[in-house]
Amino acid sequence: MATDFRDGKTFPRRGRTAIGDALWLARVADKARAAAAGTIHDYIYPCPMDKGVMERWGITPQQFDAAVATHATDEALAAWLHATTSPEQIAAANAWLLQEKMENLERQDAEEGATV
Questions:
Q1: Enclosing domain of residue 63
Q2: Inter-CA distances, 63 with 9, 55, 95, Å
Q3: Which terminus of the chain has a smaller tally of CB atoms within 10 A, N or C?
């Protein structure tokens, strides 16, 4: 289920798109799947925001890569995240994104043509 970003017109899902209650999970999953498939184009995975979210979730990029490799659907990946981390850690990551990284979210949306 890797996404191919090589056309420059296809983008990872928005950082504010939640899977369950976890913001950023959809975006980082898209990027991780594309990186594994060699179709990430000029995106960076894991980028500093990916790492910041993962740090707050209490996981490493290597753990996330293994989860993406073994959980093919968003639902399965979300179930893994909820089994691996706490609701408080997910809330802390969401708060970090929405409070400290809002400018980054806005810039990504503008660059990728997303509407809020």
A1: 25-111
A2: 29, 11, 22
A3: C
Q: pTM for the complete prediction?
A: 0.94
104 by Cβ neighbours in 10 Å (0-12 / 13-18 / 19+) ranks as: middle
Has residue 9 been placed in a domain? no
Q: Is residue 8 part of a domain?
A: no
Domains identified in the chain, total number: 1
Contact indicator for 114, 14 with CB cutoff of 8 Å: yes
Query: Is residue 88 a part of any domain in this protein?
Result: yes
- What secondary structure letter does DSSP report for 73? S
In a domain, residue 12? The reply is no
User: Are 22 and 90 a contacting pair, CB within 8 Å?
Assistant: yes
Q: Is residue 47 a contact partner of residue 38, using CB atoms and an 8 Å limit?
A: no
Structure-token pair, residue 21: 């209650």
What per-residue confidence (pLDDT) applies to 72?
92
